[in-house]
Specification:
Elements (H helix, E strand, L loop, with lengths): L6 E3 L7 E2 L4 H9 L3 H24 L6 H14 L7 E3 L1 H11 L2 E4 L2 E5 L4 E6 L4 H5 L6 E5 L2 E2 L15 E8 L2 E8 L1 E4 L3 E6 L3 E6 L6 H14 L4 E5 L6 E2 H8 L6 E7 L6 E5 L9 E5 L6 H11 L4 E4 L7 E7 L5 E10 L15 E2 L3 H11 L5 E5 L4 E3 L2 E3 L6 E3 L2 E5 H7 L3 E5 L4 E5 L5 E5 L5 E4 L2 E5 H7 L3 E6 L4 E6 L1
Parallel strand pairs: 13-14, 14-18, 18-19, 19-22
Antiparallel strand pairs: 1-2, 1-15, 3-21, 4-11, 5-6, 6-7, 7-8, 7-9, 9-10, 12-13, 16-17, 16-21, 20-21, 23-24, 23-34, 24-25, 26-27, 27-32, 28-29, 29-30, 31-32, 33-34
Helix pairs in contact: 6-7, 7-8, 9-10
Length: about 475
């Protein structure tokens, strides 16, 4: 365990938190209070106690003192009108710490919800789900006999050792699986070497050991001959800011990571002085769920001209919380600082805009790999799963088969051709613009394109006719589509 806790908080019900432990500083400031201040504080405390005593003595329905105290505390914190400040009792504090460190009880899968279904996007190695035989791409029909459309969303959680029964559809076959829940402690940093010596490193959260994990993965990538890097921070809600700082120091020998300010409003630089140069081109992937510490790292790499940012605008949480211990093992998570990027951009509630905006999980990854130097890319899969050059990733190719016509995601097709895609609502056409500015249209009316659930798809034959460098094939037995850019 690390001794100082500096974290980052953001997404409701999830994480995105920036924390600092500073009890000594708070003690000094309280001791320096004037006599008048102490009198006012005592008067306020007396008033609270008086109200509590009256409620306990006279309320007709009776009251519970612990409930009154908790209500008073929550009431004080809520008056701050700050979504990131929060009081935790002892059990809640322990649960929060587990969330930050990506520890939970479950079956070890990442799920994807669409307008029509729930399916498994990833099965963690060694997880209960893998042991039970579940696979990525499996569509969940029922959980413990309850149809997905009737579930509340938390049915996969439960006590360690308890069982959950899943009714699953796979390649048209329906089968029931019984999975035993267990404690899951997922690794926050993962890496793999792709073709053209491109290192792909993802960070799911800035846990207390994320910096150590990153150092180990980076060492393996360097040993394998890394020539460029794609750093995936999508869906990273934040965590310990000191981990983000230590990871930033692996990219720059010296420089400003960010600026912070407290009640005084004075900006203080947070400097890296003894880091190391990354020495290779870096592409950072972000989306609307990249928050807090992940935004701090993104801003540091972007403003120091160490990375190109690809994806969509980030969440927009540029505030830091101090995690302050109080009585009985409780903790107060309190916003005590704001932070700005090295260029002094305050992006709170706004988010960081990418250098290159790309919509769609698969299209973002393809674009990042192209910028990192990948010369040949094959995307294979269906509407659930994705393999890039034979390596599994989260995402899909957006496969739709209608009769003998095969459609694929317009975003994926455009990304493979290093082109941009847009929607002509008036004429109901998908427009694909190549690097030279030439626009190719695919009409919904002529069935060259489809529009479903706010996404568009293009007939791959029609697309290949206008973009001959696309090579494609459909495996009828596996019901999978392969798309390759020559």
């Amino acid at each position: 365990m690390k001794s100082g806790k500096l974290m980052t908080s953001v997404l409701s019900g999830c994480l995105a938190v920036s924390l600092i432990l500073a009890p000594a500083a708070l003690a000094d400031s309280s001791q320096a209070a004037t006599g008048t201040d102490n009198t006012q504080a005592a008067t306020g405390t007396d008033l609270i106690n008086e109200i509590m005593q009256n409620l306990e003595k006279y309320n007709i329905e009776g009251v519970d003192q612990d409930t009154l105290i908790r209500g008073a505390i929550d009431g004080m914190v809520n008056t701050l009108d700050d979504p990131y400040s929060q009081y935790f009792d002892k059990d809640e504090a322990a649960k929060f710490s587990q969330q930050v460190d990506l520890e939970y009880v479950g079956i070890g899968v990442r799920m994807m919800y669409t307008a029509k279904e729930l399916y498994i996007e990833e099965v963690m190695a060694g997880s209960p789900a893998e042991k039970a035989g579940l696979k990525r791409g499996d569509s969940i029909l029922k959980i413990d006999g309850v149809k997905i459309e009737d579930t509340e969303g938390d049915e996969l959680s439960g006590a360690a050792g308890s069982k959950v029964t899943l009714l699953v559809s796979r390649n048209g076959m329906v089968k029931s699986y019984i999975v035993v829940r267990s404690d899951i402690a997922s690794t926050s940093v993962k890496g793999k070497m792709l073709g053209d010596k491109i290192a792909y490193i993802s960070i799911d959260g800035f846990t207390q050991t994320a910096d150590e994990e990153f150092t180990a993965v980076l060492g393996k990538m360097r040993a394998a001959g890394m020539k460029s890097m794609v750093l995936d921070l999508r869906n990273n809600p934040g965590g310990y800011m000191d981990s983000a700082y230590n990871i930033a120091s692996k990219f720059m020998a010296k420089g400003i990571m960010m600026y912070t300010s407290d009640q005084s409003g004075v900006l203080t630089p947070v400097a890296i002085t003894d880091g190391s140069k990354i020495g290779v081109p870096v592409v950072v992937l972000t989306n609307e769920n990249s928050a807090s510490a992940s935004e701090a790292l993104t801003g540091a790499l972007r403003d120091n001209k160490l990375a190109t940012v690809v994806g969509t605008r980030s969440y927009g949480k540029a505030r830091i919380q101090s995690l302050l211990p109080v009585s009985n093992g409780a903790e107060l998570k309190l916003t005590t600082q704001k932070y700005l990027t090295p260029s002094k951009e305050d992006f709170n509630h706004i988010g960081l805009s990418p250098d290159i905006e790309v919509q769609g999980k698969t299209a973002q990854l393809i674009t990042a790999l192209q910028i990192a130097g990948m010369t040949s890319i094959s995307a294979a899969g269906d509407n659930h799963i994705l393999d890039l050059n034979g390596i599994p990733f989260a995402g899909n190719v957006g496969l739709i088969k209608q009769g003998n016509t095969i459609y694929a995601s317009s975003r994926v097709l455009a990304a493979l051709m290093e082109s941009e895609v847009s929607w002509d609502a008036k004429n109901k056409k998908v427009l694909v613009t190549n690097g030279a500015g030439k626009v190719s249209g695919f009409s919904v009316t002529t069935k060259e394109a489809l529009s479903q659930d706010n996404e568009t798809f293009i007939d791959v034959k029609a697309f290949q006719h206008k973009f001959p460098s696309l090579v494609w094939s459909y495996n009828a037995a596996q019901k999978q589509l392969k798309l390759t850019a020559k």
